[in-house]
Design a protein that fits this description.
The protein has 4 helices and 4 strands; from the N terminus they run βαβαβαβα. The chain has helices spanning about 25-30, 50-55, 70-80, 95-110, and strands at about 15-20, 40-45, 60-65, 90. Helix 1 packs parallel to helix 2. The radius of gyration is 16 Å and the shape is globular.
């Protein structure tokens, strides 16, 4: 008799958004991400309502120093992944639809 092995096809997805004074547009952005497991906002010293809006969506907020560069902020998620913070989740960097699909399908095949 053959053994049937059921594969766990679940995948956790985190969306990481880089922000600085994005209040006029962040609400629509975060609404479009309600399907992900976790939203992380990497904020560069916003002085508007950006963080208040992000909190409405229960986003995790990471504040970065004023002297940080765009590259520093963009690479933050990779550093956190290496440290294991996002080790059990798919981390989306640019929200490229083709990349999302590829990552999800790849995780399902493994």
């Amino acid at each position: 008799m053959k053994k049937i092995i059921k594969k766990n096809l679940s995948c956790k997805i985190s969306a990481i958004i880089l922000t600085k004074n994005e209040a006029p547009i962040i609400d629509d952005c975060l609404k479009s991400l309600l399907w992900v497991d976790e939203i992380i906002v990497v904020d560069h010293c916003s002085t508007d309502e950006t963080l208040d809006i992000a909190k409405k969506y229960k986003a995790k907020i990471v504040k970065v120093p004023l002297n940080s560069t765009f590259s520093d902020r963009r690479n933050l998620e990779e550093k956190k992944a290496i440290e294991g913070v996002f080790a059990d989740k798919e981390v989306l960097k640019d929200m490229d639809v083709e990349d999302i699909i590829k990552r999800v399908l790849t995780s399902m095949v493994r």
